[in-house]
Amino acid sequence: MLNKLKDMHGRGTELVTVYIPPGYEISKISNELKQEQGTATNIKSKTTRKNVVSALERIVQHLRLHPRAPEHGMAVFCGNISEREGMQDIQLFPVIPPFPITNKLYRCSQRFILAPLFEMLQFMDTYGLLVLDRGGATIAFLKGKRIDIIRDVKSMVPGKFRAGGQSAARFERAREGLAKDFYKRVGVAANEVFANIKDIKGIIIGGPGPTKESWMDGDFLSPEVRTKVLAVKDTSYTGDFGIKELVERSEDVLAEAEVTHEKHLMYRFLERLGTGQPVTYGEAEVRRALEAKAVEIVLFSEKLQWNRVTVECGLCKFNYKGTVKDPKAFDEKLASQNCPKCDASRLAKIEEVTLVEDMTDLAEATGGTLEIISTDTSEGVQLYELGGIAAILRYEV
Ligand SMILES: [Zn+2]
User: Fold this and answer.
1) Does domain 2-121 correspond to CATH entry 3.40.50.150?
2) Burial 303-331 (b: 16+ CB within 10 A, else e)
3) How far is the CA of 349 from the centre of ligand 1 (A)?
4) What's the pLDDT tens digit per position in 214-267?
5) Which residue of 20, 172, 317, 386 lies most exposed, with the fewest beta carbons within 10 A?
6) What's domain 256-397's architecture?
7) How many angstroms separate the alpha carbon of residue 343 from the centre of ligand 1?
8) In what order do the strands lie in the sheet with 319-324?
9) Can you say whether the dihedral through the CA atoms of 261, 264, 268, 269 is positive or negative?
10) Residue 308 Cα, ligand 1 centroid: separation in angstroms?
11) For residue 361, how far is its CA from the centre of ligand 1 (angstroms)?
């Protein structure tokens, strides 16, 4: 979906992007968009004006279906995507994001604003997929809802019917030999593809009939890759269709894997906390440990929707970074107080990112990782109650 939206462009600044964070009253957003419709009448180009007004109209109509923003908020992309000049083809694309939207946004531009959604994708887990039968094998990755087909392995195994003149026994032997060779090649390909991804969360194997089971029994997977196999499932198809089918049939396994992974990380943290091994929690403490390059894994509660901002004085350039938990109160504070240094100008925001991005960058720059922990498990709730941010450390700081 994002790749499709990325390629769309308008003739004028007429593609409308709207991001609505969770908790917003949709009727308020609709009213704001209606006001924008009024402002849009000032647009010089007649066609651009017409397209923007129509797009806003469509969005307002769409928002009527949602009295309240969904759990993670929503993004709406709308505009004239007709390839032909002078033609109007207004299309609307609603996106319910996998993680909460943090900043409200309204923009008319030649392209849709997609960066906030692309950033979310980097936090999605990667799973390996493999479907096979005697006809061939297909290897793919699943990231969020996106499937990337990585490799096809063709089989040379003939069907059950032999050509005339060959003895049945000899044909069967040749057939088994080719099957074994095919199994081996699938194993080599799977080991290569799956071992290359550092934090692959799990692998699911599928296919019609018993081929997948006999392949699994044959020890063609390396031990490291084999331990990642979460499930073996029956599918009706192989190839790209088989991969899609495998994903549909694995929803239970994927949800379970996510919960298990989060629980496992939290057990590790809590066990270390209980036995006095290096851990820490709280935003300031974790930040200090990150700066000391001591963090192996940051555990970050998905419920924390905080931002990291840099503010600066326009006059004396005094600046500082801070974490904002309540954007509205912070904006009011900025608007009402002078620079603490020169007391002659207001401070203004010069940079704003989500705290989770900020900490991910810090962790990755020092060889660590960040894991988002939901509150779907009691361990996840515990993390939230500890302040929402914790870290497993390599050594005490
Ligand atoms: Zn100042």
Assistant:
1) no
2) ebbbbbbebbbeeeeeeeeeebeebeebe
3) 13
4) 999 998 999 999 999 999 999 999 999 999 999 999 988 988 888 888 888 999
5) 317
6) 2-Layer Sandwich (3.30)
7) 6
8) 319-324, 307-313, 347-354
9) positive
10) 21
11) 29
